[in-house]
Amino acid sequence: MGIAVIATIRVKPGTAAEFEATFTALAQAVRANEPGNLVYQLTRSRTEADTYKVLEVYADEAAIAAHRDSAHFRGAGPALGAVLAGAPELELLDTVG
Amino acid sequence: MGIAVIATIRVKPGTAAEFEATFTALAQAVRANEPGNLVYQLTRSRTEADTYKVLEVYADEAAIAAHRDSAHFRGAGPALGAVLAGAPELELLDTVG
């Protein structure tokens, strides 16, 4: 089966628009270049300010490694790093069905 | 934009296989019958026993309503109710990009 990731991301106050633009571009690159990625969806919390959750599903461990090693993911690092309020919290789960 | 749901579900000890079979069939029906549903993925926690998270993405509120009113969702109610250890916890978020 596959692997899911829920990544909780908090951004610095006032940087939401910049973060969303950067991440949306990254998500487009992920969808276009990673056959092993099945879901890569940014979502915005309705209850916590400046808080996002990325819903991700990968076919297998190799697909996660390919994602992390990709030029588009690495390339987005500096711009994301500039607005993140801390390291993302990653929850890994196993997909069923 | 769309709407995402992270549904945390806990099942009674010893019912995981039954729950997974019931939910997998439900997920197949959702994917086959709900054009407004974009993601409906059951995942199993790696850290908490008998705990699952369903990653769901819908095009809009109408798609969520259609899901909740669907025969397949209502039809799975009794079988799911028999194995759930409590009401699911639902987190709604707004999709971005």
UniProtKB/TrEMBL annotation, chains A, B:
Name of a matching Pfam family: ABM
Keyword entries, A-Z: Monooxygenase, Oxidoreductase
InterPro entries, per the entry: ABM_dom (IPR007138), AI-2_Isomerase_LsrG (IPR050744), Dimeric_a/b-barrel (IPR011008)
GO MF annotation list: monooxygenase activity
Gene Ontology cellular-component annotations: cytosol
All copies of domain ABM, residue ranges: 3-92
The UniProt record lists the keyword Oxidoreductase: yes
Keyword hit for Flavoprotein: no
Xref: PANTHER family: ABM DOMAIN-CONTAINING PROTEIN, QUINOL MONOOXYGENASE YGIN-RELATED
Protein name stated in the entry: Antibiotic biosynthesis monooxygenase
Source organism per UniProt: Sandaracinobacter neustonicus
